[in-house]
Amino acid sequence: MTREFADLHAELRSVARSLLAAGQPEWTVIAQAGWPGLEITESLGGAGVSFAETAVVGEELGRAAARTSHLGGSLGIGALLALPPDTARDHALVGAAEGTELPVAVLSTGERADIGFTLAANGLNGTADFVPDATEATRLLIPTLDSSGRPVLVDIESDTSGLTVTPRPTLDGSRRLASVTADAAQPSQVWPFPATQQLLNRATVTVAADCLGLAEAMLAATVDYVRIRHQFGRPIGSFQAVKHACADMLVQIRVTRSLVETAVDAVAADSDATAAASMAKAYASDTAVAVAGKAMQLHGGIGYTWESGVHVYLKRATLNRSLFGSPTAHRRALAARLR
């Protein structure tokens, strides 16, 4: 990963694990830990580090399968950081760093990255489905096309007339998704915004980092279990088939880490991260599903029970695979780039 603040990573991981082990923190608790302000400049109340450190937190959230508003909030802050400084933008960033504001970016999470909103004379119109953390947002930041077809970023308060945010139930109970619909809603601020693809890359890599942490947690839990579970008078981890299964999981995770770190570096450096993000997301989301599934199998009968907790990770991995493009969609996009 980006090495400028690499000496902070071990401490950041330790603090994150301690906080997440204590329960499911709300946005204000997350703000007190300093996570929303990691990339915000010190003059606005942040730490002034990089996306590499945000990705470390994202990985730990996946490791804990935590139910927080960090995904949507991180993307909202990323959208604000992509804008030139001005009074409204800086005010929103100060509020996010303090925990008094939860800005959430409204992005398509499906197969295509189309902009689903338009800004006309009567206001904002359009819809987006399965938006992370939109129900908790204090403000929504929506990539939009204006009447001339130019990309802009619309800042709109969550209680604005004409704006509807509807929770959507999903397989994964650790995430909160919603549909966002605007019907002649009046925005409070509009900025030129040519950075929609960069924001999508950030979203894609954030989910890939979550998948990496999730897969590592499942491997660790499985190794611990096969050491203590005995069958035929010996630990099941001593059987060759179990050893090979765990070794395969480890190889997949190491490849995933390499791809995710490369993609994180590209996003942190503000370079063209589209290809790296697609490679990381395609491989990481497949790995997370495969490792969680294998973990359930190696836990035996208890792995299929509610009490084991493995199902929480498998459901999260399954949803992660669909968020911001499936592996198939990203591989198709990579193939198109190489033609």
UniProtKB/TrEMBL annotation:
Key word Oxidoreductase present: yes
Annotated Pfam families: Acyl-CoA_dh_1, Acyl-CoA_dh_N
Start and end residues of each Acyl-CoA dehydrogenase/oxidase C-terminal domain: 194-338
InterPro entries attached to this UniProt entry: AcylCo_DH-like_C, AcylCo_DH/oxidase_C, AcylCoA_DH/ox_N, AcylCoA_DH/ox_N_sf, AcylCoA_DH/oxidase_NM_dom_sf
Any one GO molecular-function label of the UniProt entry: acyl-CoA dehydrogenase activity
UniProt cofactor(s): FAD
Keywords: FAD, Flavoprotein, Oxidoreductase
Record domain Acyl-CoA dehydrogenase/oxidase N-terminal: where: 10-99
Family: Belongs to the acyl-CoA dehydrogenase family.
Protein name per Swiss-Prot or TrEMBL: Acyl-CoA dehydrogenase
Organism: Mycobacterium adipatum
High-level lineage: Bacteria, Bacillati, Actinomycetota, Actinomycetes, Mycobacteriales
